[in-house]
Every structure is written in C-alpha cells, then in structure tokens.
Write a structure and sequence with these properties.
The chain is of the alpha+beta class.
Amino acid sequence: MTAYDMTSARGVDSAAAPPEDIGGPQEQMAWLLKQFASSVPGVTDALLLSRDGLKLVHSDIPKDWADGLAATFSGLASLAQNITGPTEKRMAPQQIMIEREDALFFITSSGTSAAFEDHPGNTRGMVDTVLGVITRVDAEVGTVGYEMGRLVDQFAPYMVTPVRHGAMPSDDA
C-alpha cells in the first residue's frame, strides 16, 4: 500500500465518511471508530477518550474494559508527555505503542472537541481527546499508525482544535 492509496490492505476504504442519516457528532465519531476497527487489518478495537481518562466513544468494547482502557491510556499519554529526553526537554510523543504477548496497544492525541458537552471534564465547552487502538500481535505496525493518522484527520470536523500531525499537546506550549 502506498501513502496515496485510500484503501486499507483489505481493499476497504477506512477513510469513508459517516452516512448522513447517522445522528450527531458523537454518533458519527463512533461510526468512524467502528469502521476503522472493522476495516484496518489486525485492529480489534478502538476507543476515543478524554485526556482526563473517561471513555467518549468506542468500537463496541465491553463497558468495564473500555472504562479501564480509557483510564490507563490517559495515564500513559500523560506520562509519555512528561518524559525528559536526551535534549533535556519534555517533548510530546507522536505515538505510544505497547507490545504484549496478547496484543499491541497504540495511543495518540486526537484533538480538542466540542462534541461532548455533557462530559464531566468539559471545560470551556471543549474536551481534549486521545485515540487508543488495540490490535492483534501480528498487525502491521506501520499500517496501523498510518491509518490512525487518517482517522484523526477524519475527526477534524468534530474538533475545535484538530491535532497537529506529529505530536500530543504539550503542557509547556
């Protein structure tokens, strides 16, 4: 697959827009997550969470597991963003990946959204979001990362501040 190919390795367009008859922004974002999880090879689940650790929308993950993943992914995103690197500066990571015997976990920032007015962490009408993805261990890491970037791009219409490619927000920005 080339960088210009608009279909996943299965030939399914993972960047399809939600049908117009789907409800509001939250339902449309949930549809995008489910489409992503079903069309990208190796991906089993996807979750959009708030930076404060609460699940927002997901690809039909069992409730208790989604709650636990959201809290964990949020903590990992926060930890990674506060690591001092070899330049003695804190820099936001582009992506976090965890490899285990049973799965791969990917975490990246996905922008600031106004689509979740009823969210407890909503400040000034906005919620900072993080995308978490779970894959099989045999998933092609490059393809998953590329498709995650495309999914974050698809979230842009639902974001007040779309993510800048290449970084999670930094506290010292």
